[in-house]
Specification:
0% strand; membrane; transmembrane; transmembrane helix
Amino acid sequence: MISFASLATSAILWTATPSPEPTLYPAYEGDPNLVTPGVIGFLATAFIAIVTVLIIVDMNRRVRRVRYRELAQDTIRAEQDAAAADNAAELGAAVDADPDLNADADLNSDAPDDDAPTQRAD
């Protein structure tokens, strides 16, 4: 049988000396300044840097393309507004000169324009 003294001694020793926790890697005993990531680390870093540069270049192209499209649309709108203003001025001058055109202008005010719509060149 187990005596009370041996049980007490076992309990004291068990609480007094903790067991070491297991580690995955043993402690490195060399010079820590000589540790480098090696070729694989260099290639991984170079790959990330190159991909980042390519993504930035692609983003700049897309932003530039959006800006040019907006500029082209503004130019087309300005040209259409100028053409509409010229047509209105010509129609107004013609109506003032000939009263018979006044009745025709009122009838054709809902008719579609004969001008072809300006298309965007992509």
